[in-house]
Write a structure and sequence with these properties.
Elements lengths: L2 E7 L1 H19 L4 E7 L2 H10 L5 E10 L9 E5 L9 E9 L3 H11 L5 E9 L12 E5 L5 E2 L15 E6 L1
Parallel strand pairs: 2-3, 2-5, 5-6, 6-7
Antiparallel strand pairs: 1-9, 3-4, 8-9
Helix pairs in contact: 1-2
This protein binds inosinic acid and magnesium ion.
Magnesium ion binds next to strand 5.
């Protein structure tokens, strides 16, 4: 079976939207510093683009988590790589590539809340609201997309296609 990629959002559209998000975030934080917590691996791509467009002082850190998807699917997460520095007293903005069921982000936010940040917000490039199982408050959404499996701009299919500069839908021939 072979697959091909159909473009859903062009590189220009994605970059233009990230610029708008950066502008809005800069306005909202209003001179206060923001600490970006990038969720690896996919989130790294939007984090870099976004960080360049934020005009308040930016620091950043990376975290990697994996979901436990057992048969009962409790969706608890395991920390694969923890943050390097404390988030105590910081304005934390979690940056994700996509929110699907919401399980990963729900658990990650619970975990980060316990570390006493000054504020905790969430930003995602893509959101698939039709797929939501757990409620998550998302502060900044790049694009709401239909229930399709997408790749590119950090998102993978079996670890491939993260490097595509656009967002595409995987189609099987
Ligand atoms: P959630 O816990 O179901 O919200 O899962 C989110 C994670 O599933 C994302 O961080 C992605 O790694 C992965 N994922 C969900 N949908 C897609 C998709 O369409 N393409 C690639 N990865 C996806
Ligand atoms: Mg992810």
């Amino acid at each position: 079976m072979s697959e091909h990629i159909r473009v859903l959002l062009s590189e220009e559209e994605v970059i233009a939207r990230i610029k708008e998000m950066g502008k809005k975030i800069s306005e909202d934080y209003n001179g206060e510093p923001v600490h970006l917590v990038s969720v690896l691996k996919g989130g790294a791509f939007i984090t870099c683009e976004l960080a360049k467009r934020i005009e308040v002082p930016v620091t950043l850190d990376f975290m990697s988590v994996s979901s436990y998807e057992g048969t009962t699917s409790t969706g608890k997460i395991k920390i694969v790589k923890d943050l390097d520095s404390t988030i105590d007293g910081k304005n934390v903005l979690v940056v994700e590539d996509i929110i699907d069921t919401g399980r990963t982000l729900h658990h990650l936010l619970e975990l980060l809340k316990e570390r006493n940040p000054k504020s905790l917000k969430l930003c995602t490039l893509l959101d698939k609201p039709d797929r939501r199982v757990v409620d998550v408050d998302v502060d900044y959404v790049g694009f709401e997309i239909p229930d399709e499996f997408v790749v590119g701009f950090g998102l993978d299919y079996a670890q491939k296609y993260r490097n595509l500069p656009y967002i595409g839908i995987v189609e099987f021939d």
